[in-house]
Structures are given as C-alpha cells and as structure tokens.
Design brief:
Length: about 350
C-alpha cells in the first residue's frame, strides 16, 4: 500500500517538528513537506500534491480561511484543521469546515506528556480517515437562511402540539457540521424536539450551536443539564459530555455526564440513542449522518427494537461512510437515502404518524 503523503502548514516550528515525529512513527504515513506560512504552503501543494494537508488557521501573511478557500478553488486537497481551543478560533475553524476542510482537531497543551499516546493515536487515526474521505462537494444552491420569527416568540400551533411527544435524535461526525446544516434547512420552525450528538471539541459545540441558531427559525443551543426538549428546539451535546434523555411527567429532559469515552469519543451517540429507545420508543426518529467509526449503530438497534423509524445517509452523499454503514450492517436502519432527501422523509413520517 502506498503511504499517505502529508503536508504540514503551521507557523510554529515546534508544532511542525512534533507532528512530523508523531505521524512518521506510523509506517503508513509520510510527511512529504512542511511550510511556515500559506505562501510557502501554496508552492509545496503545487510541487508535492499531498494526500492530506494539516493546516493551522492563524498564520502570518495570510489567514487559514483565505488560504483554504483558494486551495479548494484551484487545487482541492483533503484538509484537516489543526487549531488551538478558544471561542474565537473555533469560529474560524468552523468556517474552514464550511469552505471545504474535512476535519478539525484541537492542538494539545504545551505539556502533553501525560496524554501523548492518546494524542498520537487520535492524530494518526484522523489523518487516515481524512486521506480516505471524499472531498466535500459544495452545493450549487446555497442554504437559504430563514428569517422567520423563532417559535419561542410564536403562539403554539396545532402542528406544534401534534409533535410534542416526538423526538428526533441525530448522530454525526466527520463531515457532519455541514451535513447538519443541509438537514436542518429542510425542517420547519415547529420541528420535533431534536437532540444531536456531533463529534467535536468542547469549545466548538457552543460556537457551532450559536451559528446554527442564527441560521434557522427554530432555537438551536448547546445542551445544558435539565434542558427541556420541546418542539421548535434543537439541543446539541456539549463537547466532552455524554448526553441522554429522560422523561418526567409529560416532557423529555436532558441529562449530561462524563462517563469514560465510548468508541473513543465523548459525547457518544450510543448513550443518546439508548436513552431515546428507553424513553421515547415509537415516538422517536433516529438519523445517522456522515462520520467515521461505529458510534450510534448499537443505540439505533435499540431504538428500532423499541419501534422508532431510523434513517441513514447514503454513501454517495457522505464525506465518510463509516457510522451509517455500520448502522445499516447492524440492521438498525429503515431507509438509506441521499442527504438532500432526509428532511422530507422525516416530515413524511411525522405526518403519517400524527394522522
């Protein structure tokens, strides 16, 4: 098997040396070049044509978003953003995912001696996934930002009342930040109470929820302990916390905890899906979108046993056909379909069940 050829673009010589040492400790990876800024990075891309570029987002001469936008326009390259954790940088990293990056990973703290093996394993695994991923295809028709009044400011409608006990549970990972935008864009202001596990670093989930909240007519927020799950509300599991639901009286609520990572991730969708199976049963719809690994598959099996309706994103529209593939293999899925059609299928199922 040919080695995965990686280009490192980062203004820190320390980071470039660290990444080279870690990546080349795996016999399947070769660092073919490094660059201290985007201008050198551009020359190296043209010369070396790497399989994967690892890109910092704050560098001299040109910022990461501007550089990546140009790269995706003229020389599309599978890219992983490697960024420090902060609210400001998380916004920039998410913008990079929007313009074409496949994955994002947080830079380690200065002293990573205690967790260096975990960091090494995660970095190598992510680079291998990015190398096998499809380059995101930018939709020719951009997502329309809905300017309607949010449901919290609207009177309760009959449709909203019908979906009070419906739960929409979604699992996604690599490629999921953009896939979720497409899916949510097809849902109405009074969508069923929605809970999402999207694998991303802790600081990123709050920023991402805030961005989605500005885009859509329903409320989107990072979930907090005890949050009520309501029609017109989307709750995203906070990074580094598992999320489950429970029922008390006539309502569903969120419970957060920090049990050990499951399948190497926290939050893990299996925790969420198992709780949805237990408390919502036939009132639930499960969705698994693009992502590596198998998280969510076992929980979706339990949801299906409890009577839920489950949908998987198809291979053609996935950046990484990992999580959906495993869920399908487990027999957990009722329908497999293109990302563009999932929202309409959710609405069709809701209308069928409420009528």
């Amino acid at each position: 098997m040919p080695k995965i050829r990686v280009l490192l673009v980062d203004d820190s010589a320390v980071i470039r040396t660290l990444l080279r040492k870690i990546l080349e400790s795996d016999p399947q990876i070769e660092v073919v070049g490094t660059a201290p800024d985007p201008y050198v990075g551009r020359e190296k891309l043209v010369e070396l044509k790497p399989d994967v570029m690892i890109l910092d987002i704050e560098m001299p001469k040109m910022d990461g978003i501007t550089f990546l936008t140009k790269v995706m326009q003229y020389l599309p390259t599978r890219t992983m953003i490697f960024s420090s954790l902060s609210l400001e940088r998380s916004e920039v990293a998410l913008k990079c995912l929007e313009v074409g990056a496949i994955d994002t990973m947080a830079k380690p703290s200065i002293d990573i001696s205690k967790g260096v093996n975990d960091f090494r394993d995660e970095l190598i695994a992510r680079v291998k996934v990015v190398a096998k991923s499809k380059l995101p295809i930018k939709n020719s028709s951009p997502i329309i930002i809905n300017k309607e009044i949010k449901p919290k400011e609207m009177p309760v409608s009959g449709a909203l009342l019908k979906t009070t006990h419906q739960i929409l549970a979604i699992a996604s990972s690599t490629g999921g930040t953009e896939a979720l935008k497409v899916l949510l864009a097809g849902l109405p202001a009074d969508l069923p109470g929605t809970v999402i596990v999207q694998h991303m670093p802790a600081v990123f989930t709050k920023t991402y929820a805030g961005l989605l909240n500005k885009m859509f007519p329903f409320e989107v927020k990072e979930a907090e302990e005890g949050d009520k799950i309501l029609p017109g509300r989307v709750l995203i599991a906070p990074g580094d916390f598992h999320m489950e639901i429970y029922r008390s009286g006539g309502y569903y609520y969120v419970k957060l905890h920090q049990q050990p990572p499951l399948h190497g991730v926290r939050p893990a969708a299996d925790y969420l899906m198992n709780s949805v199976a237990h408390y919502a049963g036939t009132n639930a719809i499960g969705v698994v979108l693009t992502g590596m690994g198998k998280d969510g598959a076992q929980g979706l099996v339990e949801m299906k046993k409890a009577g839920s309706f489950n949908i998987a994103q198809d291979e053609d529209s996935c950046v990484v056909f990992g999580m959906p593939k495993v869920a399908i293999e487990y027999g957990a899925i009722d329908k497999t379909m293109n990302l563009d059609h999932i929202a309409s299928e959710i609405l069709r199922h809701i209308n069928k069940s409420t009528n």
